[in-house]
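Subject: RAP domain-containing protein structure
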Amino acid sequence: MSRCVWYSLRSSRGVVSGFGASLNYCLPQFAARVCAFSSKDAGDDPPPTHPPEGVNGPKNAPPSNSTSKKFVRNATILVQQGCDIQELPVVVRKIAEDEFVSFVSNKIITAPLSTPSGNSEEGSTANDLQASLESDKDIIKSIDSCHSTKGVLTILKEREDEASGSTGYGPVVAIRALEKILKVESLLELKELEDTEPFERIVNCIVFHADSKAILDLLDELRSYLELPKTIDMLGNELVYRCSENALSIEECCDAIEVLTQCRRPEMVEKFWSGIADQEKSITERNVHFVFSSLLYLKISRRAVLTVLERRIPQLWWQMSPNATIEVLQALVACKLSPYRITQTLARWLNTNIHAVAEDELGAILEAFTNLAYSDAQIERAIERYVKAKGVKVSSQNLIVTILRHCEEFRLRNAHILNGCSEFFIANFSQLEPSYLKALFCPFAYLDFVPTNATKFFDTMNMFLDLHFAKIRPTDTIDIMFAYICLERFPLNFVNRIFNPYFLDVLHAKTRPERLDIVRGKLKVFDTGLTLECADYDGPLLPRDHSAKAVFHDGRIKRIINYITTELEELAGGSECITKFSVLQHLPVNSLYLVDVIFHPPGLGNIFSLNTMKERNINVAVLVHLPEYFDSTGKYLIGPQVMRIRHLRRLGLKVATLRFDILYKLKIHPQELREYLVERMKAALDALPPAGAPMPVDGTPRVIKSPGEIAVLRYVARVSSDAHKAVMKAMKPGMHEYQAEAEFLRHSYAVGGCRHVSYTCICGAGTNSAILHYGHAGSPNDCAIKDGNMCLFDMGANYGGYAADITCSFPANGKFTKDQKLVYNAVLAARDAVCGAAREGVSWIDMHLLANRVMLEELRKGQLLQGDVDEMMEAGLNAIFQPHGLGHFLGLDVHDVGGYLPGCPERSSKAGVNRLRTARTLKAGMYLTIEPGCYFIEPLMNKAYSDPSLSKFLVKENLDRFRNFGGVRIEDDVLITKDGIDNFTLVPRTVDEIEAWMAK
């Protein structure tokens, strides 16, 4: 801010002279009211203090303040900064009959401070000063011993008489005397006393000679004595003068603003802006929060001070402490201000200092940013870094709630943040308070985010809700149920509690009237969602809406639909094929279910009575999505909108979605608008099968896994992997096979919560490992495991009906022999080759042949086979060593459906591939096992020896060592993706990994 030195007005119609380069001041508008209070300025002398006759002086005596300086109050000037013009109060002093001066800068020349006559005479010695101080102490002691105002005034009068006409005492004595008078007198007596000359002399002494800190402290005491307006005005105006003369520090200006506000002097308060502006460079990281706190007390001049701070804060932010940052943000919240430059700078501060911020400090900062309605990439990055570093180590549930609230408020669908919060909930649920459950759970639904650890997360959620159901507010319970439905989860175990008459009575009794309709609406959506999507639900349990009811519809959507109606009618086939703004009969009257446009055949009749079982994929629901319906990236829809689309599809409608922002931009481009609408209609989502309906004939829903299924399959694979690792650790020669099975079952149930297995466990050791389906009733895993045996354990847990199927092969004693290494590495190489090649668009037959070819090549290198590998494959030798397919579909059954369907490749009759459980081309979302194996099965070995086309490849003298070897199988559960696989199996696989794990 450029500063003006001073401005002279030679007449009431004169022109202001002298202005800065970018800050212009226009003519003040004066309210000619004289104030007779004094200041330290060189032109202002203290009023005469000749002792009057009597206490109050003669009736015709001139006012004691007649020589005090006069200045004009309530003057304003126009201040221009760029294009911004503000009218601000200013201190204007009358210095001559027709001359005024406006103080708005630090260029004013001031004289030395006046002092009491007893201490200011020339030639005063140090002894005189010491004597004066000792005298003040004696007076203060005498004043403290007084019990009445009369006694105080008598002591001061005696001191004045001794000083021969001067006040004879300093500001310290005057302040103590005033404090004593305030203490001993009643308010009524004080009001009368204020107009007396002795009292005014005490106040004048304070005004002329006390330091600013003492005046501020005294004003702070006078907050309780607002019946003394003249005294408060004198002290307050003195601070205003000193501010205009740049005699107050930044901290004192801020204190003055606060204390004068509490003394109800708003006009004085507004004049301190110039003092802050003049001392802009004095604003440092240590006092900047004081200036921000003063904004709360300013009204007229708040914008001017804020402009100063906006310029200053980018120069200080990197030095600010966390407490100063918090106070700055909280001051902005209190003022309801969110200046972009300041909030952006403080967001940068947070991202830079996130490593040094304590939990309570981060919570306060994020809460302030949320209340300011501000977030940006730097804040998101800071939270992400914090959650990654701390995770479950965070001790404050308040901080996690604040983080989730911030994410929900600004639609931050950040996987790292949300997964970290879900891990915190799982790890610390036993210490959480029930009242926090809604705040911890509902943001996930609003953001339509299912955590990576979904199974544990929802299990923990169900358990916690079941345990504390009675302690949670009914309205929060309904919000949680609504969140379940948004995430396509069906909490059937709580249905009886929700629709219990007692619960519903409490819900209505404890819900505020203005929120009752919202809560009822969510309850109906919960009932409707279960009815549409959960086959096991016995609803609907709530009656349909039969009465007319107003439904809120956003005006922006209405206007854009009306604007593009012509184009929509053209796409639908005419005006009789389109219906706007309707709610279907099967859904509750709720703004969530309001369909913006429905395309339907002409002459359909009542669009509200669709046959949802027969009329599927005939009608198209067109929905317009506003920008706030998406997350902060604009990529993902929020949970309620995803649920809205899903429910309409369950009713049999195709759903086409339009983005409001794109429609708005294309309003003036008709051709591009039509192309966009055509594109979106072609991309309309087909109807979903109703809850409980049989699967389509092609079995695609069983073959292609949904995100929810993938989460469950990932979990059960992890549990099974951990159980296999537990078996490997427990293994030692002398154990029985059923003991290994028992350890797998124990770990799966006790640790992973999997009560069932997907199939009978195969625990074969030695020659039993060559029996593909060992472990059944005829061979019930009952053999003792010998030292040197190769173990083949094929076991998989089952969770929620979803199967895992994992096979681990390893030596019983934990150390591979040379022959065991040879066979194991041959199978591992086959498995690795398939895992590297499998992806969308690849034939499963090709993957099977790849595995066989690699395995035969490894056996040839180990001198068990000889000749050309391609010839071996052509002869069918691969089926001798691996008499089963590469793998199978996995899901709700361990050998899931979908292998050979109409329109898919048929089963081959060729040896080596005729045992495959599918010949399909892989697609993203398929979930299969990859399980190459190598077995030395006596009947098959004899068959190969007796067949000349096969025996020529066998090195008999070496193969005979393996007649009692058994077999090796390595089986992983993998998800096919567009670019490869996602392997859900997590067990030691290499020879070194297995030996290291079993050695622990």
